[in-house]
Amino acid sequence: MEMGKEARKLQDDLAFTDMLMSPSRGGDFVEMAIKKLQRLTIRMEADHHARAHVHIDYGRERHAASFAVDNGERMVGRMPAKYDRDVKAWIIQHQVKLNSLWDAMKRGEPHELILAELKAAK
Q1: Torsions phi, psi of 88, nearest 5?
Q2: Per-residue pLDDT in tens (0 to 9) along the chain, 122 residues
Q3: Phi, psi of 105, deg, nearest 5
Q4: Strands of 53-58's sheet in order across
Q5: Is 56 helix (H, G, I), strand (E, B) or coil?
Q6: How many CB atoms lie within 10 A of CB 32?
Q7: Cβ(53)–Cβ(75) under 8 Å?
Q8: CA 56, CA 43: separation in Å to the nearest integer?
Q9: How far apart are CA 6 and CA 4, in angstroms?
Q10: 121 φ, ψ to 5°?
Q11: How many CB atoms sit inside 10 A of residue 122's CB?
Q12: Known InterPro entries for this protein (predicted)?
């Protein structure tokens, strides 16, 4: 895995978004906000697409969404839109490395399909 350390920040950001966006139960009791890290996998595959992109698996979803490396925008997927800003920011921050990996892959150089695979944590 080539970007495990970098992916921890994205996993943390997505968990924070989950925590902030979780519905409130209301009522007269105090709720405790708990940040729960979900499984995160970031893959890059040398497929038939010309545009550099990453596949994001989050939680129980495999191929939850694909995001373009050039601008961080979602290309396709059913991952909730609440995560798009965090994924885009992460991609832009690591754009040089992601483009370098994509270029090497397109040249046929050996590479890892899975750039990062992080387990869920409670």
Answers
A1: -60, -45
A2: 478 888 888 998 888 888 887 665 555 444 455 768 888 999 998 776 789 999 999 988 777 899 999 999 999 999 999 999 999 999 999 999 999 999 988 888 887 888 888 888 75
A3: -65, -45
A4: 74-77, 61-68, 53-58, 40-43, 114-118
A5: strand
A6: 5
A7: yes
A8: 7
A9: 5
A10: -135, 145
A11: 5
A12: DUF4160 (IPR025427)
Contact 41, 50 (CB under 8 A): no
Tokens representing 91 are 């991609």
Which tokens in the block code for residue 62? 């495999």
The tokens describing 67, both together, are 């995001």
State the pLDDT at residue 95.
95
Strands (E), 1-122: 40-43, 53-58, 61-68, 74-77, 114-118
Which DSSP helix (H) or strand (E) runs through 15? helix 4-21
Q: Let me know: does 94 contact 69? Beta carbons within 8 Å.
A: no
Instruction: Identify the pLDDT of residue 30.
Output: 46
Domain positions in the chain are: 36-122
